[in-house]
Amino acid sequence: MSLDNINATIISTNFWPPIQDEALNVPGPVDQLLSDYAKRFNEVKTPRKLLWKKNLGTVKLELEFEDRVLQFTVTPLHASIIMQFQDKTSWTSKNLAAAVGLPVDVLNRRINFWISKGILAESVEADSSDHKFTLVDSGKTGGNVGSCEDLLGGDEDGERSVASVEDQLHKEMTVYEKFITGMLTNFGSMALDRIHNTLKMFCIGDPSYDKSLQQLQSFLSGLVAEEKLELRDGMYFLKK
Fold first, then answer.
1. pLDDT per residue over 78-94, tens digit each?
2. What is the 3-class SS of 84-143, one letter each residue?
3. Is beta strand 90-92 parallel, antiparallel or unpaired with respect to 131-135?
4. Distance between CA atoms of 87 and 37, rounded to whole angstroms?
5. What single DSSP character describes residue 22?
6. Residue 60: beta bridge partners?
7. What is the DSSP string of 148-206?
8. If you ran DSSP here, which 8-state letter would residue 207 be given?
9. Which residues lie closer than 8 Å to 168 by C-beta, 6 or more apart?
């Protein structure tokens, strides 16, 4: 693998809300590639540094069998799971979960993608509750030779990541709701910019106000949707 295999999307903490990290152990060669890319980025863009969100993004991969090559576009999590079967064709759920860095219940849900594609088979030992996953022989896999399945496996992961961002931002912004209510009680109505600047001026303790104008606008829109505030002609009012 070379650095040509990576196409990075760079997001700045100045413009994006915090994104919740999820534990994921990517395979060694991939992890080394990410480290080399980040090192080179730092050399070119000093003093900027990259902090990888390894659970986000997409991975294009090929699974080579004796008589066919199957192509997939999947999440990093799904790619990390199937790459564990390169050198070891059979895993128990507990050992595979430890290798990938996931809770067993999460692994058991995510691995269903590869089972549904006929790439892996699942079995349960009679004297054990631990599941066993085995790579299916090439002659038994579904699909045609050279078929291309451009399928983003695990859309649920992406939806869950977006939801976690929104939930986290809402939780952080809720701390300032009482300040906003107090300001609108005193002033009657305020524009977005004035609310933003007032919070920056007075919320300097713990927690200090460090949100962007766009994050504040998103939070205020939520309060309007909850009918706690009203928005008329660019001015926010307390809902009567």
1. 999 999 999 899 999 99
2. CCCCCCEEEHHHHHHHHCCCHHHHHHHCHHHHHCCCEEEEECCCCCCEEEEECCHHHCCC
3. antiparallel
4. 26
5. -
6. 73
7. EEEEEE-HHHHHHHHHHHHHHHHHHHHTTHHHHHHHHHHHSEEEHHHHHHHHHHH--SS
8. S
9. 17, 18, 20
Edge-to-edge strand ranges of the sheet holding 131-135: 90-92, 131-135, 120-124
- pLDDT of res. 106: 87
Dist. CA 95–CA 93, nearest whole Å = 6
Q: Which residue has the tokens 């660019």?
A: 234
**How far apart are the C-alpha atoms of 240 and 237, rounded to whole Å?**
9
- Give, in order, the Cα–Cα distances in Å from 13 to each of 2, 18, 79, 155, 212: 28, 7, 27, 24, 10
Is pTM beyond 0.85 here?
no
Contact 77, 157 (CB under 8 A): yes
Instruction: Compute the C-alpha angle 226/227/230, nearest 5°.
Output: 125
8 A C-beta contact, residue 65 and residue 147: no
Owner of token pair 């829109």: 221
Instruction: For 30-39, write each residue's pLDDT tens digit.
Output: 899 999 999 9
Output phi, psi for 122, to 5 deg.
-110, 140
Whole-number Å distance between alpha carbons of 155 and 55: 13
